[in-house]
Design a protein that fits this description.
mainly alpha; globular
């Protein structure tokens, strides 16, 4: 699995969790102290967020950090 694929999977997981909790990109951005457009770029795999950024998002989503890096038997689709 290449690194671009990793970032796409992380972005898909962020989007999936955010939507399942009924949180908008704007709210997630405010709660994680990031720009709303940057959240969109991350969710689409167009940016490569740092561990610190993913950690801030995990806190805002109340989701353990490790979840974003768990890929074995992952059901996250990239299309």
């Amino acid at each position: 699995m290449g690194f671009n694929n990793v970032y796409k999977r992380i972005g898909k997981k962020i989007k999936l969790i955010r939507r399942s909790k009924g949180i908008s990109q704007e709210t997630l951005a405010l709660d994680s102290h990031l720009n709303r457009a940057y959240i969109g770029y991350i969710e689409r795999g167009e940016r490569h967020p740092s561990i610190e950024t993913i950690y801030r998002i995990s806190l805002a989503l109340k989701t353990p950090l490790y979840y974003f890096f768990k890929f074995n038997n992952d059901k996250t689709k990239l299309s």
